[in-house]
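[step 3/7] fold_predict: job queued, chain A
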Amino acid sequence: MKGQKKRQTINNTFLQEDSIGLEIFTMEELHEQHYALLSQPLRTNTYQVLIFFTAIPHHAIDFSPVIIRPYSTFFVRKGRVHTFDPHARYEGIVINFTEDFACRDEHDLILLHQHPLFNGGGQIDLQDIDTYREMIETMMAESRKPKDEFSRMFLRNLLQNFLILSGREYTATHPFNHMKGPDMQYVQRYNVLIEKHYKTVRTVAGYAAILRITEKRLNQATTNVSGRSPKQLIDDYIMIAAKRLLSFTIMTVKEIGFELGFSQTTHFIKYFTKHTGLSPASFRQQQYI
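[step 4/7] structure written:
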C-alpha cells in the first residue's frame, strides 16, 4: 500500500456548538465552506435530508450507487457514509438535525424511527416541489434569525410537517406499503434492535426473544416487508459496518473484528470472506486503488 492515498472517514461536523440541533444550508454553501470534507467519504452523525435540484451522475451511500434526478430527495439515518462526485456541481438543500431536536418524548422518537423514509424507503422524487420549497425557505429563514424561546418549537413543528408530508407522499406512491400493519412494526423494531445489539446478539432466536415473537413470525415479517430473512438483515448490517471501518479508518483487521464483536480474528476473516468473496485485507486494498 506504499504510495497509495489513504481515505479516512470525516464525521459530519456542520452542526455548530451553539446549534439548537437543526441546521439548513444550500449545497452551494456546503461546497464553498467544506470542500475538503466533500473530497473524501463523509459520514453523518445526524439525521440528514438532502434535496437535489439537479441530476448528479455519481453519488453513493454506504457503498451503493444511487440515482440522483432533479428533485431527488434522500432521507439518511445517522452513521451512513456519503461518497460525493468531486467533479459534479451540487445544487440543492441539506437539512441536518438531531434526535434530541426532533423528538420531545419517547413517542416522537418511535415515530422518527418508524418514518418510512428513514426506515427503508430512503428516497423519493418530490412532486409538489413548490410546496416543499416554501416549507424549506421558511425553515431556512427562521433558522438564521436570532434565537428566542419560541425558535426551537417553531422549527421543530416545521420540520415535523416536512417529514409528515414527505412520508405521506412516499406511502401514497409505493403500493408495497405495510406501514400500518404488524409486519412493518416488527421489522422496524427489529432493525432498531440490530443497530443497538449487533455486537453481542447474532442469532435470530435472540432477537425474537426480545421482540416476544417466534422466529417463524419474525421471518414472515421481514420476508414480507423487505424480501430478506432475519439472518440476512443481521448480516447486512454487520457487513456494512465492517466495510465502513475497513474503508474509512486505520484500524487493523484484528481491531475491527474485535470492534464488531468477533472473539477471534480468524472468525471475522472467514465471515467477511464468505459474504464478499474477498478477505478484509483484499477489500481494503481495493478501496485505495
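[step 5/7] annotate
Residues 1-13 have pLDDT under 50 and may be disordered.
Residues 172 and 212 are 31 Å apart (CA to CA).
exit 0
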